[in-house]
Sequence to fold (398 residues):
Amino acid sequence: MAQGATELRESTTVVVIGAGPAGLTVANLLRRRGIDCVVLERRARAHVEQRQRAGIVETRAVRMFHEWGLADQVLGGVPLSGFLEIRIAGESHLLSQDDGSEGPPARLCPQQVLVQNLLSTYVADGGDLRFEAADVSLHDLTGDRATVRYRDPSGAARAIDCAFVAGCDGDHGVSRASIPDGVLTAYPFDHGIAWLTVLADAPPSVHPLMAVSPHGFAAHFARGPRASRFYLQCPPDDHSDAWPDDRVWSQLRARLGDPALVSGPITERELFQLRSIVHDPMDHGRLFLVGDAAHIVSPMGGKGMNLALYDAEVFAHAVSDFLHHNDDTGLRSYSPRCLRRVWNDQEFSHWLTQTLHDAGDHTLAGPFRHGLARARLDRLTTSPTAARAFAELMAGLA
Ligand code: RFL
Fold:
């Protein structure tokens, strides 16, 4: 954007780009430490508050919100039932989610509920949050101060000087794209699988449920007292138009091994590819990438949003240590510290994705990988030690 004479200039400590789980958590944690910030969000408030995606805030993240004194305000939903059901060819196996640690467990808290609560807490706390910020651009990232430019809803050009920029604008945002070519290395992975996901006004499953069947993988998760999210494995070149309601319900009944599954109106459907990517490093000068802006994890294992919350806390501690104690250790170690957890969760998600798909339709993975996946499931459902290690990973404590 041209820097005209009418540009309105301001100054703050941190500009946060994006008001998803990552950006709103960064903003709330910074305010708890008395650090000024401005959040710039491209979309309108109603859009941000209604975007449905993740459903579970893992144990580690629940305890993080408790430690910051935010749990009562931001965590909606209910504590998790304590079991995960894996159904193999119609046979049910309940895995305890007890990881052996003390403290509050994971919560069934839909992403939009978390976002609404983070948003209202931040605004009630006097936080500065600007919706419909257009043409956001980042400047002077390696200088003494960075500048973020944008146009407000009236079309006026604005510029904010800051010490740090938190790039929380997801995989398609402007933050990562502002880093010069050659600075970051991308590590992408395509699972070669697509999922059709539907949200339906249908009774939730008793426990989070993942099913392995010769027809392909399926899953059923609660998204509220009367709402469910379902997932169905499909070929990567499939299209959601090929999935009329009748086909969705008959395939779910076959794959979940539940002929009596109660259907309901489908309120949302989307077909997406299972893919993962890691960008390394997660910082450049005064810019720190947080959440999906730095990494995408395939949804199996429910780690994407939880990683965003992890990065947000590491960043907030790092900025606070620097401003309050003149200690830049946290800023310098931000990227390696976050990437260690990112790769840990990528490995878990990849392992679970391969296991639950390969163990089903053996024509896709071939008989050898099918046998390996069945052996992993056998170990998981018969060895208490294997089940405990799995629970730790699900909880985010490993
Ligand atoms: P978000 O949520 O994408 O938010 C980014 C925000 O930035 C804004 N933005 C901009 N603002 C200003 N200027 C720009 N130029 C901008 N460009 C973008 C956007 O409007 C938006 O408000 O990223 P964040 O905060 O890093 O959060 C990440 C999570 O949303 C994501 O990891 C999860 O939803 C992934 N995910 C799941 N994660 C879990 O932990 N558990 C799950 O069960 C789970 N299920 C899922 C998922 C993702 C799914 N999709 C997207 C395929 C299920 C699905 C269907």
Q: What stands out?
A: The first strand starts at residue 8 and ends at 11.
